[in-house]
Each structure stands twice: as C-alpha cells, then as structure tokens.
Design brief:
Elements (H helix, E strand, L loop, with lengths): L3 H11 L4 H13 L6 H8 L3 E10 L5 E10 L7 E8 L4 H17 L5 E8 L7 H17 L8 E5 L5 H14 L23 H17 L2 H6 L10 E5 L3 H12 L3 E7 L2 E4 L6 H11 L9 E3 L12 E4 L18 E3 L8 H9 L3 E3 L1 H4 L2 H15 L8 H19 L5 H5 L6 H27 L6 H19 L5
Parallel strand pairs: 3-4, 3-5, 6-7, 6-10, 10-11, 11-12
Antiparallel strand pairs: 1-2, 2-4, 7-8, 8-9
Helix pairs in contact: 2-4, 2-17, 4-17, 5-6, 7-9, 7-13, 7-16, 13-16, 16-17
Bound molecules: nicotinamide-adenine-dinucleotide.
Amino acid sequence: MHSNRFYQGMTQMLEKQSFFQKVNANFDKASRFTDYPQGLLEQIKVCNSSCHFTFPIKRDDGSIQTIHGWRAEHSHHNLPTKGGLRYSTLVNEDEIMALAALMTYKCAIVDIPFGGAKGGIQLDRNEYSESELERITRRYTYELIQKNYIGPGIDVPAPDFGTSENEMAWILDTYLTMSPDKLDAIACVTGKPIEQNGIQGRREATGRGVAFGLEEVCSHKDDMKQVGLESGLKGKSIVIQGFGNVGYHAAKYLTEAEANIIAIAEIDGAVYNQKGLDVEKVAAYREETGSIRHYPDATFFENPYDSLELECDILVPAALENQLTAENAPRIKARIIGEAANGPTTAKADAILRKRGAMIIPDTYLNAGGVTVSYFEWLRNLSHVGFGRLARRFEESTYNAMFRAVERATGYQFSEKERRTVHGADETDLVNSGLQDTMINAYQEIRDTRSKYGKNRVNNRTAAFITAIHRIARSYMQLGIFP
Ligand code: NAD
C-alpha cells in the first residue's frame, strides 16, 4: 500500500510546484480576465503575515519534545481573519500559507466578511495521548495570544484535518483564562462544542455544504448534458476519499439526497459495493473496529487509491491535498470531481481530467460550508443570543393563528400531522437554510462569471477565482488604500 507520505513525495517529484505556487498560478490565470493594477493584484495574492513558532512539551513518559506550529494570515482586507487549525505530519509553512490563501478566496466567493488564515501543528495525533494533545493545543493557543494571532476581531481558528470540537474547547478555555473580562472572548474560535457556545450544525456544515453544492451543480441540465449525465443527484454513483468529518457528513447528506455511495476510501484501505454502501453502517463498523478494513457486504481494496479509479459519476476527495495527480488522473473515470478537501487536484491532474471532459467543482466553493456556518457561530457569539430564540414561539403562534383562520374560513380541519409540519424556525433550521442559500447563490455567481467570459475560456475554478478577485479588489478600493 502506498502511504500518504510516499504518495505526496512522489507527486512533488513529478510536479515541481509547491501548494502555494499552485494556488497563486490559479490566481494569476484568473487575474488575466480582470484589469486591476498589477500592484493591487500582487497585494491580494501575497500572504500578509505568517508566523512559525516552536515550543517544548513534556510527554507522558517524562521526555521533552519540540513542537513546530504555524499560523498564517493571508489577507487583512477584512478582519478578523478566519481559517482552520490542522494537525498533520505534512504541515509546513508553504502548506499553511496556501491553505490561508484558499480561505481568503473562499470567503470572498461565498461573500463572508473575513480575510483568510490557517494554522497547523506538525504531528501525527495518533502518536499522542489525549492529555498530551491538550497540553500542545493550550500551549499553541498561548503562543497565538502572545503574538496577537488570535481574537474575535483579529484571527479566529476553527477545526480542520486532524482537529475537532475538543481542540476548539481547549483553545477557548485558554483564551478565556488569559482575557477574563473581554465580553466577546467566546468568539475567538469557532467549531466549539454546543455546550461551549458552539452552534447547531457546525460539525456537519462542511459535508452538508458539499451535498448542497453538488445538488445545485447537478440541477443544471445543460451542464450535466455536457458531462454526459442526467440532471439531479438521485441515483448518481459516488466515491468518497477520506471518511473523517467532511467525508462522513458529505456521504451522509448525499445519501439523504438519494445519491448512491459506492466506495469509501480511508488511509488504510477502501470498501466498495456497486449497489451502494450503507454509510451509517460503515461508520458504526469503523467505530467498533477502529477501521473500515474488511467491512462486510463490500469488496475490500488494500490500496485505497485503487478505489479512486472506479467507474462512477462523482468522485469526492475529502482527505488532503495532492491526491489526484498526473500519475493517477489518466485512470480516473469520474465525470464530476467534487473537491471537498482543499487542493486535492494538482495542476497537471486538473488539465488531464478536463481534457477528458470531466467537470471539476473547486474547493474554494465546494467546501465553503464550514466557514459559512463558522460565520454564523461567530455572529451568534457576538450577539450573545441563539438564533431563533426570540422569534420561534412568536412565529409558531402566528402560524397557528393562520391555521385557525383558514379552518374557520374553509371548514377544513387540519390533522395533527399537518399542524406539526409547521413550527417556528429554530437554530438548526436557520443555519441549514442560510447554508443552503449560500451554496446556491455562490454557484449561481460562478456560473454567471463562467458564461460572461465564455465557458470554453473559463472553467469553474477560474470563474470562482475571478469572482473572488473582484470582491477583494472592490473591498481594497473602498478602503481608500489605492486612491
Ligand atoms: P478529518 O481529520 O476529520 O478527516 C480526514 C480523514 O481522511 C481521516 O479519517 C483520515 O484518516 C483520512 N485520510 C487521510 N489520508 C487519506 C488517504 N490518503 N486516503 C483516504 N483517506 C485518508 O479532516 P476533515 O476535517 O474531514 O478535513 C478533510 C479535508 O477537508 C481537508 O483538506 C480539510 O482542509 C478540508 N476542509 C475541512 C473543513 C472542516 O470544517 N473540517 C472545512 C473546509 C475544508
């Protein structure tokens, strides 16, 4: 089996372009369709500030280890900056700057008033105990505070690869301890547990956004015709790579939309069933055994990369960057690539896949659900009241009054079941509605940009970058920095 590290090393040898260079190449390609001054484009593209720091931690066995951490704030045109915190052995400065830049463009594409940021710690979380991870996270947060790289109006982390609500709770607690009387301190981090001022639906948000996004993509008959597919998600065969937060939730909500998840790839193997996998059963099996290996009712692939080459309608890479490369792209048969992970497709793979007629739905759009709901969480924290709390009962009694008026006027009696379908919107309803609206509107904007410049000249990725450049450039010009 190829290890992730082996695969990425091989990729880098074959395609000598760093992740940040790849993001910048996409930016340059899009910027040619605009007429902003070169200096302004350069200012949008560069990383405004980044920080590498090291600190010691005491392991459980008493030994001392040096930990390497980074935080990059790519663009200060909007504050706070916003972006996830990643725990992975592959973390380095280039990766963090590239991911921070993607966050800037992503926020602009879905029209969220944040600049982009990203943080990372170079470690394999499986090699550390829970208490070691807590010490590392708290110390990392302390470093961020010391360097002014965190705060509700400065820079706001969130979960990413290898982190979850637990790490966000430790970040919050460390920040609160260091700033006891700051009213808005709870907005210093998002993706927090519900009990710690988190928001309903944040955990699921990125995967749910992927499903909303793909639903929107597949609803356009002419686009689907171009890739040889019927419109609608129903019945589409889908392969998912990475069964973590994003991959699991994407698979769950795509299943709810009646798509057919035929394969799931994890780091230690893939499972495949042409008739469709029961996503919840695969998740329960992994919970029980610690892996999806040899899940019953499916064919097992020892090498997870083999499953990416299966005949399918949609391939959803939801693990890490550089997974679809010049090496495997010629064998990938999916008609649509839905980039749930950040940067999963190398530049060469991108060209190969498009040449074959595949449609790529870019990361800057498709995985924006996470930051969208993080934005809602941040707003909720600043307002200190949950969405729906003030209006829900009022809405419900208004609807009930309407029901009674209709009954009186028509003589019709609504059943209990019919009455139950009507309720005031609670936080979950509002978050999901805001997320769906965001994913639909952003895709419409990308499509409009694509048609404005011509489908054959501008693909989805370039159109998304053009949309972002316009929004950021306008913001800089309104700030009066470039009179
Ligand atoms: P996660 O740590 O929850 O899950 C990642 C999963 O991928 C893990 O289960 C891991 O074992 C698996 N994996 C790693 N390498 C693999 C390989 N080569 N083949 C198959 N599986 C592999 O991380 P996540 O939060 O789900 O993030 C996944 C991707 O989505 C990352 O690129 C991240 O930047 C991006 N993303 C995450 C969020 C979010 O809200 N969590 C938001 C936007 C983008």
